[in-house]
Specification:
By secondary structure, the protein is of the alpha/beta class. The protein is built from five helices and twelve strands. It has one domain: Alpha/Beta hydrolase fold, catalytic domain (Rossmann fold, 3-Layer(aba) Sandwich), CATH 3.40.50. It has an eight-stranded mixed sheet, with helices on both faces. Strands 5-6 form a two-stranded antiparallel ribbon. The chain has a two-stranded antiparallel sheet with strand order 7-8. The longest helix is centred in the C-terminal third of the chain and has 22 residues.
Length: about 220
């Protein structure tokens, strides 16, 4: 069952309940021009059975939804990044609590990946990890954050015309310095989603599940 509502936080979103026995929740964050339906198929492919929470960005750029303002391509309004990251974090915290869910793992593409990275650095604990697809540094000087052990997968495109390879590497370094367990894969791809992204993200989630099972076994 899928519901669409507008919360007190003002986010139009879709929520898809998880199947019985799957305790995972994904926070799906679309790219520029997307909406709350864009990444639902991706979420179902990479983490079958997980609950899916997918909000629509509230900022409009030439009529296209985004999660924060930018001044030009690759140049962000950093004050807006901070404000919008806190706003989204408040929405996520309230929504997962209302459904009785644990901290979600963000799966973000492009602009959605950037706001997810900003949330991790500004509001540690709201997310339980992240898959950041075609992400770049959202905050040049992020505050100190404790992300000890939080799993992060960054999927970059080696031929991405929008995100320089060194920018993605700098984001990986920021998150690693904060204590996150970061895996950074550079694919032979441009800025768009590819089947390799799906395969690697699904494998990464399966690895998290195996690690959780191993941790729960008696020794």
């Amino acid at each position: 069952m899928t519901t669409m509502t507008e919360t007190a936080g003002g986010f139009v979103h879709r929520f898809v309940p998880g199947t019985s026995g799957c305790g995972r929740t994904l926070l799906l964050l679309h790219g520029t021009g997307g909406d709350e339906t864009d990444l639902l198929p991706l979420g179902q492919m990479i983490a079958p059975g997980a609950a899916l929470l997918s909000p629509r960005g509230k900022v409009l750029e030439n009529g296209m939804p985004r999660f924060f303002r930018r001044l030009a391509e690759g140049i962000f309004d950093h004050e807006d990044v901070v404000r919008r990251a806190h706003e989204l974090a408040d929405f996520v915290t309230a929504t997962v609590a209302s459904h009785g869910l644990a901290a979600p793992v963000a799966v973000g593409f492009s602009n959605g990946a950037n706001i997810a990275a900003a949330m991790m650095l500004l509001r540690p604990g709201v997310l339980g990890g992240a898959v950041l697809i075609r992400a770049m540094v959202p905050l040049p000087q992020p505050p100190a954050a404790d992300l000890a052990g939080q799993p992060v997968l960054i999927l970059s495109g080696g031929m991405d015309p929008i995100v320089p390879e060194e920018d993605a590497a700098r984001l990986a370094a920021q998150l690693t310095a904060a204590g996150a367990a970061v895996e950074h894969e550079i694919l032979p791809a441009g800025h768009g989603l590819t089947q390799a992204d799906v395969t690697l993200a699904r494998r990464w989630f399966a690895g998290l599940d195996r690690a959780g099972e191993d941790a729960g076994r008696p020794r």
